[in-house]
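quick q for whoever's on today - can somebody do inverse folding on this one?? i tried earlier but teh output was garbage lol. tokens:
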């Protein structure tokens, strides 16, 4: 059969998007986002005693301070220059006091990591749920998490991490006014240079399960719906974000990531601070399980999800895949 006559430009217009897809080099040239290790943050769990990761989820291991320093060396070789630290204390109490113990796992790890490499970017998660015996993110009074009694404890915890040398503190408790409480306390203590990555829109998500096992932070009663956001809400996220900017947040973090691409895009459009997203433990587990069952190719699927999160507007992504990205520093997708 003879080929049909070429379509006249006058009929359809000059657009032929396929012109820019003809080779890998050309596609790379016009790509709108790149997934690079320098834009990723690796979460790490520090404990007094190491504990192997659950089957199939190697990034959820608990490490000692020495093990953490070794792991960060391996990450640096792969181009990852930022970590987010969580602590698993030896003892949990009703008020979570181990959170602000300067000899606890997180401050000790911060000092060791900064001693080994002052240029490493160290973020420290600020929350009480890993430290309280009931597993809630704040102080419980009469069966309820008390917002205002929790604020000074979060501030004290953040200050402890700042004094140990953290570059950024990341409050994740979803208490109202937590950013203001932390900023005021840091400034009073002369820590004006330490920044706040606010978990501004953090949803009460079913994707945190594997993390809670790794950190031993599952609530012993109830759930987190009285303080974390309802996944049905989009406009409410804007109120949370606006409040955190007004209270002094340097970066707005949204979590989980893939279920929240609309919220990330809204945040990018509405605010002029960097936007970050957290691809959480359940997202990690979902991709790992599908890859293990050979239902998808892990490296490709991971790059696609990270591209989508960047495309939505995230400047950087906290992800358990940070250390797995092949290619090292500055690698093209
Ligand atoms: C602490 C905190 C949680 C996560 C990050 N910080 C757990 C929670 O809110 O229950 C979850 C991270 C993940 O699932 O990877 N509040």
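ok took a stab at it. sequence:
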């Amino acid at each position: 059969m003879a080929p049909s006559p070429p379509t006249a430009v006058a009929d359809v217009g000059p657009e032929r998007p396929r012109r820019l897809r003809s080779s890998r080099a050309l596609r790379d040239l016009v790509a709108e986002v790149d997934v690079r290790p320098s834009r990723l943050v690796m979460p790490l769990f520090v404990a007094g005693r190491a504990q192997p990761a659950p089957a199939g989820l190697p990034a959820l291991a608990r490490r000692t301070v020495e093990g953490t320093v070794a792991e960060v060396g391996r990450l640096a070789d792969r181009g990852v220059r930022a970590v987010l630290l969580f602590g698993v204390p030896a003892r949990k109490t009703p008020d979570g006091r181990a959170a602000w113990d300067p000899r606890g796992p997180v401050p000790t790890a911060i000092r060791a990591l900064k001693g080994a490499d002052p240029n490493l970017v160290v973020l420290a998660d600020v929350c009480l749920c890993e430290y309280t015996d009931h597993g809630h993110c704040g102080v419980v009074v009469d069966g309820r998490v008390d917002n205002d009694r929790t604020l000074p404890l979060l501030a004290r915890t953040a200050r402890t991490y700042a004094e140990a040398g953290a570059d950024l503190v990341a409050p994740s408790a979803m208490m109202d006014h937590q950013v203001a409480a932390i900023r005021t306390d840091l400034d009073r203590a002369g820590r004006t240079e330490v920044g706040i990555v606010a978990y501004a829109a953090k949803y009460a998500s079913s994707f945190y399960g594997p993390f809670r096992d790794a950190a031993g932070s599952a609530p012993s009663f109830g759930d987190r719906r009285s303080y974390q956001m309802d996944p049905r809400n989009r406009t409410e996220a804007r109120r949370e974000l606006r409040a955190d900017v007004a209270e002094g947040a340097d970066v707005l973090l949204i979590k989980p990531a893939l279920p929240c691409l609309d919220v990330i895009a809204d945040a990018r459009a509405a605010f002029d601070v960097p936007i970050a997203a957290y691809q959480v433990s359940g997202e990690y587990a979902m991709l790992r399980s599908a890859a293990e069952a050979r239902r998808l190719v892990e490296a490709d699927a991971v790059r696609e999800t990270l591209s989508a999160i960047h495309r939505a507007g995230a400047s950087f992504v906290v992800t358990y895949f940070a250390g797995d990205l092949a290619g090292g520093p500055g690698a093209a997708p």
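fwiw The radius of gyration is 22 Å. also The domain at 33-252 is CATH 3.20.20.70 (TIM Barrel). so keep that in mind when u check it
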